[in-house]
Amino acid sequence: MKFFVDTAEVADIRSLVELGMVDGVTTNPSLIAKSGRKMSEVIAEICAITPGPVSAEVTATDFDGMLAEGRYLREIAPNVCVKVPLTEAGLRTCKALAEDGTLVNVTLCFSPGQAILAAKAGAAFISPFVGRLDDIGQDGMELIADIVQIYANYPQFKTEVLVASIRHPIHLIQSAKLGAHVATLPPNVIRQLLNHPLTDKGLAAFLADWKKTGQSIL
Ligand code: G3P
């Protein structure tokens, strides 16, 4: 399973790259706004340290505007993946960019039907938002199960399921059990996956016992 990091904070990405937890990065206009930085600069910096696709999202809403922005964004670095919303113009843009060999991530997916359209438009990734479905009382993970099952029925679909809007470790674990290709994780969720109180307690006990021996390994 690939881990993408869902942030535009370069320091967080760098430390997670050093930990070996980064196969790619996803950003969106809200995350760029939160970074307080110029989009083209922060995307270039993220691309330089990321060993995989970096999603950069268009903000135009019409086909011509999306296509022009997508073509601009993909020039920033070879590993830019252009992110488009799941609208009619977004799917048209996806098709046009994918035909040129550009990786496209179709975002804001909330139904299996939308995911089928994105695959037919040649998306490299479909981003279903699990947390936002949970927020309105629906089951985000059911959507992941549906899309994984549907895509598996059609090997000609090359689109990877990129689980987005992950809020906690259970979302990630359930996504992995369902066989989703990619999860995009906020940095704090990666840290939640890492930490366990019994690991801390066990380590403290080992070190206390070791101290009693008076030994040192080196
Ligand atoms: O990158 C898009 C997605 O992961 C957003 O998550 O928490 O704002 O719903 P969230």
Q: Sketch the major β-sheet.
A: 8 strands, parallel, barrel
CATH class: Alpha Beta
Structural class: alpha/beta
Topology as a string of helices (H) and strands (E): EHEHHEHEHEHEHHEHEHH
The molecules bound to the chains, other than polymers, are: SN-glycerol-3-phosphate
Please give the alpha-carbon distance between the first and last residues. Answer: 37 Å
CATH topology description: TIM Barrel
Mean of pLDDT: 98
Task: Say what oligomer this is.
Answer: single chain
Give the strand content: 15-25%
How many DSSP H or I helices?
A: 11
Overall structural domain count: 1
By CATH, the architecture is named: Alpha-Beta Barrel
CATH H-tier superfamily: Aldolase class I
- List low-pLDDT spans: none
Task: Please describe what this structure looks like.
This protein has 218 residues and is of the alpha/beta class. It has a single domain (2-213), classed as TIM Barrel. Helix content is 53%, strand content 17%. Strands 1-2-3-4-5-6-7-8 form an eight-stranded parallel beta barrel, surrounded by seven helices. Residues 6, 26, 28, 129, 131-132, 164-165, 184 line the site of SN-glycerol-3-phosphate (G3P).
